[in-house]
Amino acid sequence: MSDAVSPLAPTSYPEMPDIAGVRLATAAAGIKYRNRTDVLLMVLDAGTSVAGVFTTSRCPSAPVDFCRESLKSGSARAVVVNSGNANAFTGKRGRETTELTARSAAQAVGCRMDEVFLASTGVIGEPLDAGKFAGVLGDMAATATADGWEGAASAIMTTDTYPKFASVQVKIGEVTATINGIAKGSGMIAPDMATMLSFIATDAAIASPALQSLLAEAVQPSFNSITVDGDTSTSDTLLMFATGKVDMAPVTHADDERLGEFRAGLHRLLVDLARQVARDGEGASKEICVTISGAESDASAKRIALAVANSPLVKTAVAGEDANWGRVVMAVGKAGEPADRDRLAIWFGDVRVAVDGERDPAYSEAETSQVMKRDEIEIRVELGLGTGSWTVYGCDLTKAYVTINGDYRS
Amino acid sequence: MSDAVSPLAPTSYPEMPDIAGVRLATAAAGIKYRNRTDVLLMVLDAGTSVAGVFTTSRCPSAPVDFCRESLKSGSARAVVVNSGNANAFTGKRGRETTELTARSAAQAVGCRMDEVFLASTGVIGEPLDAGKFAGVLGDMAATATADGWEGAASAIMTTDTYPKFASVQVKIGEVTATINGIAKGSGMIAPDMATMLSFIATDAAIASPALQSLLAEAVQPSFNSITVDGDTSTSDTLLMFATGKVDMAPVTHADDERLGEFRAGLHRLLVDLARQVARDGEGASKEICVTISGAESDASAKRIALAVANSPLVKTAVAGEDANWGRVVMAVGKAGEPADRDRLAIWFGDVRVAVDGERDPAYSEAETSQVMKRDEIEIRVELGLGTGSWTVYGCDLTKAYVTINGDYRS
């Protein structure tokens, strides 16, 4: 694997404030990678509520099965994440591994096993030796600190070229709450599931059912609207924790009127993290933002936007800085959604390249070429049928994607 | 564009016999390419019946619209095909072009306009200047000969690296009929439509409705079971002609009992042509044959097979000769079809790599590596749920695909 950092990496990173009630520790267990951290332990104070969204894969990993069970308790005290091995398609041994890890974490933190959450990311199908890190969880729990967010984001990376984290502060009623988030993901990224891995924590007091509603809603325009390769991981896991350390009457319902700013802040945070994932798409040289408007419904717009953002021919054209809007028409046509060829208009950036089903009379190749040199390529299609719209974030398809994925295991 | 021929090109080509009632001519009109033929005229004797299957795109090309209309006549006398420009997304001018071309062809051949069929392939969105070739159709009709099949296959190529043609002879009742076919296609190839372009002709006497049934059936395991990049063309057109020159009582229904061998021969011919298209997939270095068995239904097996064959991560792994069956599990899981992780078994070639939801205890990396060096990679998944099965043909994803599609227009 190359050590090159994506040209789309953030140029500056936010300060990550502490979240009262959350402590973090990382360790280097040598699961697959050498000379880097690959285990993360999050320790959560008693009283922390939890929400989660997981892959829709019919073949989920053992940790996903485990988390779905734990989620029923509504309470979280520990999260163990390892990178390098996904513990997916590992059969009975996979379940033994999650049991052993959860038991070790519960002992280390002093909680019930159904308050432990697990996530693993990396190669599928290889047995994961939990012995490698189960033994260090006790030490990690003892040394965990509140300021470990950046390190946590680094420990969960696989083919990521940069750590992904973000933070927002919002008013919730009279008080101020903080929301921190980290994420990882670079390949095997497609929407209609959670994401690869992302962990969000807030010090607000929000009961699990309300937290679950907020998270499920915020995931739609963010992690469920990104795609790198249209491939859905067996391990996609998005967990959110609310420690309740802020001095406030707990939110018990998602329609609590104090949530306005919190909801907007959570959306902003998740879109930020999701775009960081899309921009670190394996081999990506450009981000692609596809907006469909004028569709019969938002759902229809989303399906068309995904068809465009997932099209290998659109993605390679963007990589080649070719404003090949014919391929955009192709992708709109193949989506199977209502579309009228002779009403379509298409923009690359702010340049309209097609209108009324044919090339814009004012089309300028030179002007369009300038747009295609940018790092962020905005493709906009107006269908002229209704009021549905949606935006999807993806990236281009380069030779580097083929290189990275042609020799991942070796 | 490189002049390199795919490593998967056929090592030998069949002799193409004449089809009584079919004459062919090609010309170099300089539509996009230099120093090669780019126009094909097929001249069909009076009494020729016709069937057709077209793209399911919501944004079809002007020639597809035109053919759908002509098909209603049930009669075919002329086919005009050009390569280099798809006449797709060209609005009113596109329709004027099809009108002009069809009128010129009808004059040249001496038939009605609704007995003319048109197909165009190449760049989308550029106006096609029919004047470039409409004027030469008269000469072409006068000089067309029965032995032009190989030349016809070459004239319709775009990014294809080799011409695609095949022929079978079959008994139909007491007599022998011949079926010839040509095809083109290399990128923007995905199933659930016809294909790129393919033209089939037989000297058998089969009425249009029966011919349509036979074609619609034969397209399912052939052109509708291949994929190069999951992208669906706006121009996919498969036309079949029956000249009725064989001395036989005409077939009027698809359930005519004389059709047994004909039906099998047509299936064989279309699978042959479809695999030639898959093997010429842009940048392909290996053919991938994905067979799913033990599914709840054939339709379910097909959807899973397509998810595997279209997965960029599976395709890049094959390109890298990496038996990464974890990615096969991922693709099975994302298909959204019934599957039980813990009952899956997976083979690469004849080597079983996974069984009962985990790595095969007898797994040998060395043995599997040998399989991955082959030109044809067979991936087989047994789901253990039912009796549904399907096979899909695709190809790997290499850096050459990115190169070819990053600078197609320029």
Assembly status: homodimer
Please state the structural category of chain A: alpha+beta
Largest sheet of chain A: 6 strands, mixed
Q: What's the number of structural domains of chain A?
A: 2
Please list the strands of the largest sheet of chain A in the order they lie side by side: 13-12-11-14-10-15
Task: Tell me which CATH architecture of the largest domain in chain A applies here.
Answer: 4-Layer Sandwich
β-strand amount of chain A: 15-25%
CATH homologous superfamily caption of the largest domain in chain A: L-amino peptidase D-ALA esterase/amidase
Distance between the termini of chain A: 10 Å
SSE order of chain A in H/E notation? EEEHEHEHHHEEEHEHEHHHEEEHEEH
Largest two-chain interface? A-B, 72 and 72 residues
Large-scale geometry of chain A: globular
Helix content of chain A: 25-40%
Fold-level CATH name of the largest domain in chain A: L-amino peptidase D-ALA esterase/amidase
- The whole-number mean of residue pLDDT values of chain A reads 88
**CATH first level of the largest domain in chain A:** Alpha Beta
Give the uncertain stretches of chain A in residue-range form: 191-195
